[in-house]
Design goal:
There is one protein chain. This protein is 28% helix and 24% strand. The protein is built from ten helices and 23 strands. The protein is α/β, with parallel strands linked by helices. The structure holds flavin-adenine dinucleotide.
Amino acid sequence: MTRLTRRAFGLSAASAGLAFAAPATLSAQTQARLVIIGGGFGGASAARYARIAFPNVAVTLIEPKTSFVTCPYGNLLLAGERTLPQITHSYDGLKARGVNVVHDWADGIDATAKTVRLRGRATVAYDKLILSPGIAIRWNAIEGYTEAAAEALPHAWIPGAGEQTTLLRRQLEALPDGGVVGFAIPPNPFRCPPGPYERISLVASYLKRHKPRAKILALDAKDAFSKQGLFQDAWNELYPGLIEWVPLNKDGKVTRVDAQAKIFETELGTRHRVDVGNVIPPQSAAKIAIDAGLTNETGWVPVNPRTFEATRARDIHVIGDANVGQVMPKSGYIANSTSKVAVAAAVAALEGRPAPEPTVYFNTCYSHVGPEYGISVVGVFRPSENGFVETPNSGGVSPRGPLAEQREQRRLEALHADAWYGAITRDAFS
Ligand SMILES: Cc1cc2nc3c(=O)[nH]c(=O)nc-3n(C[C@H](O)[C@H](O)[C@H](O)COP(=O)(O)OP(=O)(O)OC[C@H]3O[C@@H](n4cnc5c(N)ncnc54)[C@H](O)[C@@H]3O)c2cc1C
């Protein structure tokens, strides 16, 4: 591996247009090449951090979309408290930092030749690849839940350009007062453990203000969930009688949907007719990770917990929701914090150094539950023999107690959540 001058890197960056030309190699240079697939929380954070910490490394980010709509704060959009532009972030900041942003799909990875094949047919060579492609929906894991069905019963769990979240918002606006909003919630593991319950809370907040006779029916494939006590306290205090949560042991698992008739059918055959239906289906790592043979029988990618290198391929580090990651949650926070560890480990390996120590991974998941009402859970994790462990007594949830006593705490946590959103999106995209 030889080093490249800044001028040569500039030329390489400018060659992004080649992605649309006949088969070619994008980077004809020999500077250490870090290629990142996926410009979401993990990938954008990795690209930005790599440019800051390792300015001699050439960084290419492959991402089809020209701007990124975040899942976090999408639930506030559903409640009418954010607009799409407020949760959309451009890649201009990364480009200004010298990241070579290639707007295309990665269609295949050749781990032997160390190349990525783009849909535009160009080939990008790498010394180290960081993969942060997020999740895929497991279509038909719930019978009848297909891509076509998602047009009637949106998942709004992969934002794309915001189409699914906007569709669900429009459906809520059109809901008749007295109608039923149904949620189908998946078993673990899935993207953002508290996300469905934040969504239920914020939809309840919207209904309370605009459709006070409407109800929520939340059918869950689990018996317990993240921040459960805090959420249920808030539901009782803020939205009494509005939300019915049905756990697995009360026949809450949805196994079949009829998208046209808007029917959720459970394991024991109970059929629930809803007016608006949000299906949050079972998930796996994104297609590119599966196609590259990186996933195991769980559908997620096993990784070395210190370096995030995939156990099934050398020089490919997999971060964010796509890796097995347990017991860490699949969160934007974890994707961001682990991205830096993965980049540092990848560059260290290229330079013949051991991966940096110590390795500790932090997470805080905030949830908005209503106006000026925020709650959170904190976790600190470490690598272990078989994956990740939570450090004992390292985290915890917001204090419980009657709203009258906790009002100031809840108000502050809502402000902290807003500050977190601003900070993490700057840390990824600016
Ligand atoms: C409703 C909701 C609320 C949430 N709230 C929070 C929260 O408050 N806090 C929190 O920490 N987390 C939250 N999350 C979770 C968070 O969104 C995810 O954990 C995070 O986005 C994971 O980052 P990632 O990089 O793995 O994937 P993503 O952020 O989804 O990024 C993946 C990117 O890869 C791209 N991609 C996929 N395949 C390819 C390919 N073949 N070629 C090129 N590019 C590709 C995609 O276009 C996408 O831009 C929430 C999630 C949801 C659904």
